Amino acid sequence: MCGRFCLDSTGQTLQRIFKAEGGDGIVPRYNIAPGQQSPVVLQGRKGPRSIRMHKWGLVPHWAKDAKIGHRMINARAETVAEKPSFRQPLKSGRCLVPATGFYEWQAIDGAKQPWLFHLDRRETVFAFAGLHERWASPEGEVLNTFTIITTEANEQVRPFHHRMPVILPEMTWHAWLSPAAVTQVEPLIQLLQPWSGRTPITGNRVSARVNDPRLDQPECMVPLQEES
DNA sequence: CCAGACGTTGTT
DNA sequence: GTCTGG
DNA sequence: CCAGACGTTGTT
DNA sequence: GTCTGG
Fold first, then answer.
1. Among A133, A144, A180, A204, which has the highest number of CB atoms less than 10 A from its own CB?
2. pLDDT band at A226 (very low <50, low <70, confident <90, very high)
3. Catalytic residue among A6, A95, A104, A220
4. How far is the CA of A67 from the C1' of B11 (A)?
């Protein structure tokens, strides 16, 4: 699963980490939900990578209605090459989705308690494997959207959920982003495999409940004291 | 041929 | 747009 | 993912 | 229960 994540980074930092242009004005966010705009890193046919704001929830180019995006927030790595909605984006619309963490949810006394999963250092920016699409409404309005690819959960996440977003190691970013279009999909699918073990994730309980406005504040990212 | 779906997660 | 089901 | 809505008619 | 909106 990846139904919510955070990106504790400025556009300037993203430019440096991803060696990309754009993204000016991006500020840290701690509670990015489906339907919201979030940065993605794209590789144009020529020239440098660029950072763009896309809407989370992929709308296929053939869709008659943008509402379909609501159920396209994730794509399974195991089937992404076959699904009508993702087949073309896999060939020509791969992207990176910058993040510093993602949330899992635990029911405690009937309430949903968020846990934040992040890398060794909580502020380390990493990249989800993503796909993006450009959709034009019948009226001609353009909507840029993306989805996050998921895979089997690793050891750290498994106690919470059986799925997690694919995290691409930096050494695979170039291969995932280019060339712009491919005919053979197998090498790409291979890139989605090495998430496990290679990417140790730390989970910490967040000091705010779900949809508590404080969840949008950086203070909530600080791990809670261990309970005695 | 046309009509309808096109997705994932989690829960029952 | 493309595939599946009827 | 979670939260919140879940509807139509007629009038502005 | 299921769908939509964020």
1. A133
2. very low
3. A104
4. 24
